[in-house]
What we know:
This protein is α+β, with helices and mostly antiparallel strands.
Amino acid sequence: MNGDIATPSSSLHLSHDNDVMHAVLNRTDKGNALSADLVAAFAAAVQQAQETEVRLLVISGTGKHFCTWI
């Protein structure tokens, strides 16, 4: 499976390339701070990764900050 993966949240962008999943935090206006919505989307992404052939999950953030926490 390759390409973008639909997520229930616009706060997290997922893509999949062979056995690598990329998760990009996308709350630039909030410094990619965690929210309930983002945590739920990330948990669903991890669950999906565990159920597929994903061997590596790369986590990054948009904008200036990776994550400013909460």
